[in-house]
Amino acid sequence: MASDLDLVMLASDVDFYVSTDGWRAFLGPTDLIRTGVWGVLTERRIRLPSDLEVEFGFAPLSWAVTNPPDPGTLEVIRDGCRILHDPDKLLHSLVDVAEV
Asked: How many whole angstroms separate alpha carbon 29 and alpha carbon 98?
């Protein structure tokens, strides 16, 4: 509990996740701590009933562009990344570029 969980979610409709809170319903009761903008990524930081903080970073699919990759995005990937779901292999390609 001394740390938080950071998730990057690539979406074709980022505005849905940034301008509404209905998507949080599947998590149960949560508190929105803050919303912040980091380039094309918008952070929605929430606190779960367990007190765990989860940072959802919502970004367009272009966040994973590899030619050329965004330096800030590469920094995020190089800092540690575990891909949970990537059916189009966008993040796998980005990780490959970051490892070079």
From this structure: 36
CATH code: domain of residue 23 = 3.10.180
CA 6, distance to chain mean position in Å, is 7
- The total of structural domains in the chain comes to 1
Q: By residue range, what is the domain housing residue 63? A: 5-98
Q: In one letter, which amino acid is 76?
A: V
d(CA 24, CA 20): 9
Per-position pLDDT tens, the chain of length 100: 556 789 999 999 999 999 988 888 888 899 999 999 998 999 999 999 988 999 999 999 999 998 888 888 898 889 888 999 999 888 999 999 988 7
CA nearest 1: which of 55, 45, 52? 52
